[in-house]
Amino acid sequence: MDHINLFCDEVWPSSPTASRNDDEDDNISVQMTENIITSKRSCTSFDEISSHDDEDDVNNNGENDQFRHMTKEDIELAFNICLEKENTYLPKPNYLQYLYYNNLIVARFRTIQWFIKCRSRFNLSFGTVFHATNYLDRFISMNRNSINNITEWKFWMIELLSIACFSIASKFIDTNPPMLHQINQMEDMEHSFEASAIQRMELKVLETLDWRLACTTTHSYLQLFIHQPHLQQHIIIIPKINHFLLRAISDTKLVEFRPSVVAASAIWFCLDRFLSTSSLNIDHYSLLTRFFHQHQKDDIIRCHNMMEKLWSSSNDGDYYYNYNYNGCPSSPTTVLLKDRNSIRDDHEISPFLKCYDCPNRPRKKLRTCCDQEKILL
Fold first, then answer.
1. Which residues form the signal peptide (predicted)?
2. Which residue ranges form the domains of the chain, and what is each CATH number?
């Protein structure tokens, strides 16, 4: 695992150049943006390492080569790094209340539902969905004052933001991301957007997030948790855990919990629920929470109890299978898209994007390859 950089703290710059004005930023080439996003993959995240651990990717023992040779100390070190890192990638405080107050609960749910469909349609990693959701939540929470001072959230704004977040996440996580027009043509969108509008929205998202894309998500903890001693034999249920984690991040009731807490609670729930009775003599709670402080353990128990209630209240008592989105068509050509409302870039979108202009925000100079080599020497 010498190619895995566990110590990536992502101190990369926040903007392409120091000399561009705002108009030039809006006209930046898509290729340059993609190159910058791709270059950040050097800070490998656990979502990328375990990106395709779905049913078809669980081999004979369901093990992942990158994690198979990690020692107990390696896992503990990586876990502590993730715990420390996740604090800097959380939505702003009171985000849950903001969603309720602005009637964004359904919009957020539909967006993540759409992320999941896109992932299945384009055969992308699970990590792409979790990263896109993180970008969505952080962007909304960081710009709530800006949007409220100008206008109110409209559904086409959420759709444009959703396309931008998913496009950025797929370029950051996956090695073969879909083209922009392919994402824009996905069903379940009520509006269509010009490519230039989506590109400008992407740049606004990147600038707002300070170009910090290597976030720690609930999915980041999956391989770390499941490769602990006494849990490795349960790797076969990783596909079920993946889908259960998707259900968890879609549920607004769980937004208040940190990614590590949601991950531990969901994995604990799945281990107890889906394993045979012969495995129930293992104390999964103790194994999953040994790296947490007491107040975090209390949150895990509270989150787990909420999942139990959601399970019991769901149809047929199945919290996992009621949220499986693998049933969508395998190819976009099999779908007849309905007519959509077209949102023109120069008519409605420009005023919306100006809500997020930060002319006084200091810019940082992009490190060149030579600069990076000097740092490594």
1. none
2. 90-209 (1.10.472.10), 218-313 (1.10.472)
CB 79, CB 287: distance < 8 Å = no
Query: CA 183 to CA 206: how far, in whole Å?
Result: 18
Q: What is the DSSP string of 29-88?
A: -HHHHHHHHHHGGGS--HHHHTTT-SGGG--TT---HHHHT--HHHHHHHHHHHHHHHGG
pLDDT value at 331 more than 50: no
Residue whose token pair is 């559904």: 155
The beta strands (E) that lie in 166-225 are given as 191-193
For the record, the structure tokens of 14 come out as: 């926040």
- Claim: this prediction has a pTM higher than 0.70: yes
**Which own/partner contact pairs does 23-30 have at CB distance under 8 Å and 24+ positions apart?**
25/203, 25/207, 26/200, 26/203, 28/203, 30/180, 30/199
Beta-carbon-side half-sphere exposure of residue 215 (alpha carbons within 13 Å)? 31
For 277-325, write each residue's pLDDT tens digit: 555 556 677 777 777 888 888 999 999 998 888 777 665 444 443 444 3
CA quadruple 290, 295, 301, 304: dihedral sign: negative
Q: Can you read off the two tokens belonging to residue 116?
A: 């999941």
Q: What is the pLDDT of residues 151-194, one digit of tens each?
A: 677 888 889 999 999 999 999 998 888 888 888 888 777 777 88
Tokens of 338: 């309905």
Q: Which residue has 């651990």 as its token pair?
A: 53
